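User: Fold both of these, please.

Assistant: Here is the first one.
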Amino acid sequence: MPVREADCLVVSRRGSKVRTVHAVRPSEQAVLETWVGEQAAAFAESCGFKALPGQLVMVPDTNGAPTALFGVPEKGVVDPFIFGALAQELPDGDWRVEAPDDIARHDVILGFCLGAYQYGLKSASAKKPTTRLVVTAQERASVASEMARSIWLARDLINTPANLLGPSDLARAAKTVLKEFGADVDVIKGAALDKAYPLLAHVGNGSDRGPRVVVAQWHGSTADKKAPLISLVGKGVCFDSGGYDLKPSSGMLRMKKDMGGAATVLALARLIMTQDLPVRLELRLGCVENSVSGHAMRPLDVVRSRSGLTVEIGNTDAEGRLVLCDLLHEAGEQNPDLLLDVATLTGAARVALGPDLPALFCNDEDISKVFLEAGQQEADPMWRLPLWQGYREWLGSSVADISNISSRPTAGAITAGLFLERFVNPDQRWVHIDSYAWNDSSRPGRPKGGDSPGVRAVFKAITQLFCEEQDTAAIKLS
């Protein structure tokens, strides 16, 4: 699946007609007439414009041309999603946004692009955006626009129906994206997959659409053999029926999104590559379908994992952790400076944190602080939950080394994290993100459907940890 161009961005040419959006703070209403004239300012006031964040009103400027006034928050961290409303609410045409100097141009571009995103498979071809943001040629190739393209990629993959995106399709899409930037990519299947990833195979071989594992390596143009190694792992369950522990029909309605972890780390990898970060990068995606069939896994099956640990299948609907654990163990064999996985893993995380906050688990205090602070800086928050070792015994089994489910009905997100931790080296810096990867309703910049929260925060954290000369560099060296 190719990455769609951010065609909501346009480089203005001489003579082209460009209209203006003035971003206004509530405290700046008194100076509106200096921007649009006395009559237009009075007209805006009569329309109830108070420059509340996200409020938009159209007025004629001093020459009678349509001009927009758009409310933004007072000083502080600005959520770029707010600018997504412009892509949806402005009239057709090319628009230039004039914002206060302390509002980053990055946020304006990113928010506008994310608001312009649309996905559909209707018989009539989707129209290109007719409301466009005027940028410079440099801005069109900036990190903001590449971040938007990467998030569009993740959204497209998550939104694609499962009949059109099975394990082989997901693997093929990932290979296309990764090879574009010179990555070495292997797609593993069949007997080789069964041998190397026995638990993942035990999940995926229940479907007539057999499992695939994508393994990729890439390094930045300035990265030598001693450059930091970042290892990314993603859960790519293209559809999750629950297996023999069958989900109710209502529980399957969004299960095309169960590959959201793979889509998220692929978007992150693409962003890292477009910015040519001075790191070595590894990516592993477990692409499977959890089906009901005569050759599907059964409750109480016992399988020996890649690590040698035997795992009892206490519930076939707890398949995501089985997909990840062999990949995590293999990734750890390379001793990466950071091992990070993303998965749509547990409903328990959603009960605890709701749909907007990915749950972050981390076995390193310093690393977790960097990730959480990056989330605040990028208005892309995550919330840390503990790897509480007191619950580890809940994963016990009478016949195997470990069960894939807890013996207790509580703390499901934590016990899932503890299960994964058993396949991570004790001295390995590891981050696990449990994400919903979906918007239940449309909001500015976040249309209903698939999404990849955390990409911006994780990218920021990686650049701070491994690409900037600052105190946090000591974390990776200690």
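And the second sequence with its predicted structure:
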Amino acid sequence: MAKTDPYAALRIKEFNIFLLLRLFLVFGWSMQFIVIEWQVYSLTKDPLSLGIIGLMEIIPAFTMALFAGHIVDQKEKRNLFALCIAAFSLISLGLFLLTSNTIVGDWSTTSILYCIYALVFFGGFLRSFFGPIIFSLVALIVPKKIYPNAATWSTSTWKTAAVLGALFGGFAISWIGVTKTLCVVFFMVLVSFCLVFLIEKKPILNKKIGEPVKESLKVGVRFVFQNKAILGALTLDMIAVLFGGTVAILSVFAQDVLKVGSEGFGILNASISMGSIVTMFATTYIPISKNTGKKLLISVFIFGVSIIGFGLSNIFWVSVLMLFISGAADGISMIIRQTILQLKTPDDMRGRVSSVNSMFVGSSNELGAFESGLAAKIMGPVAAVIFGGSMTLITVFAIGVKNPVLRELDLTEDVAASELE
């Protein structure tokens, strides 16, 4: 049934709870990201300050990633997830207080800005744990034979939450203001914290509990670098996201290039995720296991072309369309990457492999935000986006030529083998 049933994973009760939990958590996180970017740029009017947000998050996320993966493989996942969500609620509460009338009236702009950066830094530390925990937890909730279907629904839920959070965040800034919007974020995080306890504790599958950290990390990194399919997919996405990401400077386009205000800002952000959602739900009916590598390369190529189109456009709805297409292409590449990781990673190494994935792809989002802000500062936002899209296209051609294992990758046999387990 798992082979043809697009709702196979949804027939598992705990997986539905997990999806609802992730919906609330990512909804709040996405809103918070939008509000922080809007508030920081409103305070500074400097695109480089948006890049610094990314830099403040990538430093702890990158440096802690491997250690976080080691901890996740050694600990029980449900309670560790709850602990991280509780800590994230403190960040949301802190940002809510920083935008209150009392602090805004009494504190200097510089002090508020530095405190925001500090909370973003703490969030980067937590983010290094979220990825490995979620990746490992999904594999403990659903049987291996429906990993691809579960990966599609999990990623689709994440993107759905991202689009709703981005859209509501942009409009909420205009409707109820920054402070009340952050109060909504805090509520969303609390809901996700309550939901996590509806999932039962899971067994620890790592047989080497207490293994020295250095040896544990070495094993995880060695596995990724010896698997050409995983390494190729991660490298492709890392470089594409690093140079092709536009999210970090969308507020510049909304305010200074397209002049569409906070509502337009929310629509621009939401259009990316909406494109991803459409393709992700489509992949529940159209498997991506055949000619997987070629599909990954083509999707990233389309992503690069659409980013260049967005940079060249000065018409709002054309810009929205280009971002929608970029999101659609990115959605396909994300599903393919997650499917490769789920099928190719041993159960006792999921935390560490996911952490390496975070270092390659997750951290490149923040580093890409810094690159986008810096490039926009130096060459202007339009030229920066066109440059990023061009670098993405160059990367696709380079990876396609240099990594034949990824180019010829086909997961049909892996999916069939998982059906027999």
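The two ends are 14 Å apart (CA to CA).
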